[in-house]
## 1
Amino acid sequence: MRSKIAVVILNWNGKSWLEKFLPSVIQFSPNAEIFVIDNHSNDDSVSYLNQNFPTVKIVQNDKNYGFAGGYNEGLKQINAEYYCLLNSDVEVSENWIFPIIELFEAHPEIAAIQPKILSYHQKDTFEFAGAAGGLIDNLGYPYCRGRVFDDVERDLGQYDDETEIFWASGCCFFIRSKDFWEHKGFDERFFAHQEEIDLCWRLINSGKKIFYTGRSKVYHVGGGTLNKQSAQKTYLNIRNNLSMMLKNMPFPTLIWLIFFRLCLDGVASFYFAYKNGFSHLWAVARGHFGFYAQLSGTWKRRQKHQAKKYYQSKWLIFKHFL
């Protein structure tokens, strides 16, 4: 039987997050089916769920597929009209689902929606991963309303609107299941980071819309698997961002931009090394090598059609830092 909405949490060795945040999801999601996709954890997450949350359905992956592959694999077993892909380190609030469903049903052209994402530790401040909806600049750098690079704003009601955005955060990602599968889900080669931006870009290129609503809000801890200081996170962000541009960006912008980004990322690598350590300088280089290694496969996945206007701001990195 097909459910209206499935709230789906991907778990990998995250028993402590499930203990802390799953009760709020159950309490405030009375009309949703709740699933945990376990990405082959080696802690006792599954036994803990079976003993303490019998109403939660468990899907067990046979290995750790990462964020992108983990959801793709697990969602094959979940039949619902809408998916909510929810990080395990998120506290939801009362009535968080209804405004999303209302927006979906009023606008069939909307494929994905994001709520307001605030910091769990500073609840009057936007959270890094999504804030009030994702945008992108003409150089391919993702940013958010309420968060530009590492600078976040306080929530003063300035984003209590409903508006079209460019990408919805994977931290709390609502999507119509038919759109997810028609676009073949996440690109599993990304493993983690920016796969939701890539999917949203593909949706936009096909004529769909991505939206944000401030009528729904959640609170995100952030860094539950890879924190912001992780060199592996730097590597994945660099590699995946370049792959995402190659797949989705229109010519002739793509050609000059890839070369320009090579120079900008070189400068950024020294900034990362100064701020977080030498391992991040090497992570930027590895990100480029990883992109080149996947070049053939990425080119085959390139969209046939690209929206000519993909960005909302120009030269953001220069405006912000200079």
Note: The CA atoms of residues 135 and 166 lie 5 Å apart.
## 2
Amino acid sequence: MTRSEPDPQPTDQRQVDSSSEELSAAEVFAQLALELHDAKGLEETVEAVVDFALQAEACTYAGVMLIARGIREVGAVTDPVVAEIIQFQLDRGEGPILSALAEGAAVSVPDITAETRWPGITERVGSYGIGSALHVPLWLDVQLLGVLSLFNLKPNAFDVDDEAIAHILARHASVAVANARDGETMTAAVDARKLVGQAMGILMERYDLDSDRAFAVLRTYSQETNTKLRDVAQQLIDNRTLH
């Protein structure tokens, strides 16, 4: 009796399945890139990030904590529970999220009930029924923008592949957040120039000043009262006076 050759179909099928999974992941991240590009501002951008995390990751809840000019705040969450968790750590000044921020590296909490590094924090997180968490910093070059946090109701929910996907998601999020902030800064600058221009027009018409002199009046008042030039201009437009 001759030995039959093994059927190659299972191996071929596994290759097809693997290719399909890779294609699916690529398509999902491509969709994320489009959604982030279409987001109209910082708030919509981080909301798109956390919503996407539920699709791309083995997580029950997701959230983003942002930092700008030393101010740390809740950026977006998929559930109010996450906002409470982030705020609790901000109020206490410790926890895995802040450790990820301070260390600039991912912090994994495989089993909340067995975690001993932040006993008060993890006890609170566990009270929400959360079993495991993964926190990945949002880096853009050398700038740290915040932390992406993922939570699962089961312990040991995030494996090596999940962490790799979380890092990819964090990179996408970092670029999108930076672009959104730049866009909002640019919009604010344009709005400020418009306000100052309107205020200058009021002074020029009322006191027969040229543009240089009108701007000098606004700037002097701004310096003497320690008020932003934009706010000085808004005050003049609203009240028709600087007093």
Note: Residues 1-23 have pLDDT under 50 and may be disordered.
## 3
Amino acid sequence: MKDHILDFPAYQRLIHSCLLRWKLPEPYEDCLQESYLIYVRCVEKYDSERSKFSTFFIQTLYRHFQTMNRKNHQNRKAIQLFSIHQKPHEKDPLHEPLLLLDIYHYSSLTYMERVIFEKSYTGYTVNQMKLLIGKSPSTILRARRQIRRKVVDCLPT
């Protein structure tokens, strides 16, 4: 039994109900554009033997917005982590919280480098980190050098 796939505008009400369920703010233009891209992907991958198209499309859309919401939540938590602490007094661009967030997420830091990065930014000394993390001072200093290399690579020139 072949399920008939309707045009994208026929699913507008289902999409809006999904957006309302996630309490996404209006206007919905960006979300509708993302929904259309998901619709096109679903049309390509749809298997009529497994479910109705509308069910497949809405479940895929729901998972997409769930993932998007989870990533936004993680980003908000990271911003809070950096903004809780007082900003340094000098006007060094490396002390901007949003730039630090970009560095934290996009410079390919390992888990240990992220921990050392967070502790360094919050003002811990190498000896304090040694006690907290349980690594030797030379390991911490080596990780900081590696962080600096990665930061330089991710900053625009």
Note: The first helix runs from residue 12 to 21.
## 4
Amino acid sequence: MVPTPPDGRAGIDAALVKRLIAAQFPRWSGLPVTPVEVDGWDNRTYRLGDSMTVRLPTAAGYVPAVAKENRWLPRLAPPLPVAVPTVLGQGVPGEGYPFPWSVRRWLRGATAQPERVGDMSRFAVEVAEFLLALQRCDATDGPAAGEHSAYRGAPPAHYDEETRRCLAALKGRVDTDRAADVWEAALDAEWHGAPVWFHGDISSGNLLVADGKLTAVIDFGTAGVGDPACDLVIAWTMFSGDSRAAFRRAVGQDDGAWARARGWALWKALLVLSQNVDTNEEVAAVHRQVIGEVLADHDHFA
């Protein structure tokens, strides 16, 4: 896992961004710098004028994503059905900020909260079509799944020890016997396919919508080449009922991929639940719901 950003994360602010722009991209120094409405954890993002953003990693563990995105996004973009970030400038450490950073074109849309999505089943198909297009992109020399992707795209066995610790910690709080069966099924469903591109973090916060439709996909920091099963997790974290069924039909994938996807969803939900079960009931409830949906899905399809 990437280490937690230090307290100095708060030191990334609009004033720092203004200094970095003035020093390294003086042609843009007169533009206003403002925080975005919804920010991330791995990176801080600021609007630069009306048509650009500045994106800065919050800790050393997130730095490899900068060069990865700068290199691969221009190659991935042309065949994809919706927009992805366009890098306009590559910044270097300076003004007291220790990491590389980037300037990007502003993308139209807002994060895909359910109330912003017109027809959830249609949206599920749009997400599936994006994933299939991404999988068709040329994977030659692409970054193999590993530490840079938080092991998304690799076998879920990387998180076996952590998952079993969470199961032990949550005994009596969730149905850990059924959850253990789901996890074992994920481990048994070994992937033997040709490596393809995966995004690694397909979630509502990384999907942008406008007029109820998918317009862009952002944050390729965990992207790489390997097993795309990790990109199916949205089936349980955002979709349900008809929209989940529409996503499943549209994205395809074999039974093994769905077993591994349930494992990925279960690992993350168990981890977050174990961290919040006694301190944040709102967060805990969300992840209990995901666990319940995953267990029901396993019972139905396995």
Note: The first strand starts at residue 33 and ends at 35.
